Each structure stands twice: as C-alpha cells, then as structure tokens.
Amino acid sequence: MPPYAPPSRHAIRLRINGTTCEMEVESWTTLLDLLRGPLDLTGTKKGCDHGQCGACTVLVDGVRVLSCLTLAVMTDGREVTTVEGLAQGDQLHPLQQAFIEHDAFQCGYCTPGQLCSAAGLANEGHAKTLDDVRELMSGNLCRCGGYVQIAQAVAQVVLGPGPHASEVAHEAWIAGTTVNAGKAKAKA
Ligand code: FES
Ligand code: FES
C-alpha cells in the first residue's frame, strides 16, 4: 500500500463581487462549488454540472464562463462577478430591471445564469439584432420556456429600445418609466 498523501490544496486570492478573498482550495474544486459552498453565494445555480445548461454562468474578468467547468484554482488573481454583484446597492442592474419589465422569468432558477450571460454578451459587443441575441444566449436553457421574454429583455438593454422589445416595455420606454428610457432622456 502506498503511504497516505493528504489531498493537495492551493492558496488562491481573488476578488468576488468587489471583495478580496483569500483561501485554500483543493485542486479539483470547481468555481461553482466554491461559490455555493464555502462562500455561500447561492445565487449561482447548479443545473446539469456538465456545461450543458448555463445555470452556473458567472463573469470572470468580465467574460462569461460556466463555473461548473471552471476550476477554482484557475481564478487565482481574477475578478469574479456573480448575480449577487450585478446590482449597485438598491439600484438594480439594467438587465435585472429589464427582466422585471419583460416578465422574463417564471421559477427563476435559470435567471442568475441568464443575467450573467447577458452581461457578458453586452461586454462582447457582437449582438446587433434580436436574432444575434437569441443565438448568443442559446447556451442558457430555461425549462420554463421564457425564451421570448428573455431575448426581448436582453435586446432592450444591449440593442436599446425598438421593435424587438415587448409592447409593454416599448410603451414604458416611450413613457419614460424604464431604466434605459431614463438614461436616453438624460442624454438628450
Ligand atoms: S450547471 Fe454549469 S452548465 Fe449546467
Ligand atoms: S424561469 Fe424557470 S427555468 Fe427559466
């Protein structure tokens, strides 16, 4: 019998939602398990745990990643943003506000991943049409089938108001009662 060797642990230092965290993790610990376990950031959801559903999406240095396929040691020195870090105090992130305006969730299980994925999509700057938004959000599954509203909500923020937005949201924008409308009118 080979002598027992304790599991290897690695010291990492990263920023999570603006807070610096230092800890030791096992080499096989995923970012998802680190977030939901020791850090108690349970907004990030575990769906398939195999990179298929997008429920675990978070941002690492502003880039959307699947935290179930990302080892915690890989985030040493990086900036991680979870759904808990999107809002600024009581001020919702524009995507969160748009999801409410478009009724873009039902059970809400996929919503944290959808929001982080949409934030990453906005950072990428590749979406020019509603179809682009649908395609670029296709890695995030919604078992409640809220795809129409989700795409509209994301498009409202990423593309701005327009025919891709739902009628209710578009009217709200015209009336100046949405986040984006407020910004647009402030600029005007
Ligand atoms: S839990 Fe990570 S992709 Fe499904
Ligand atoms: S709102 Fe239920 S899975 Fe998307």
Automatic annotation (TrEMBL):
SUPFAM superfamilies: 2Fe-2S ferredoxin-like, CO dehydrogenase ISP C-domain like. Keywords: 2Fe-2S, Iron, Iron-sulfur, Metal-binding, Oxidoreductase. One of its GO terms (molecular function) is metal ion binding. The keyword Metal-binding applies. Its cofactor is [2Fe-2S] cluster. Residues 10-86 form the 2Fe-2S ferredoxin-type domain. Pfam families: Fer2 (PF00111), Fer2_2 (PF01799). This is (2Fe-2S)-binding protein. It comes from Ramlibacter albus.
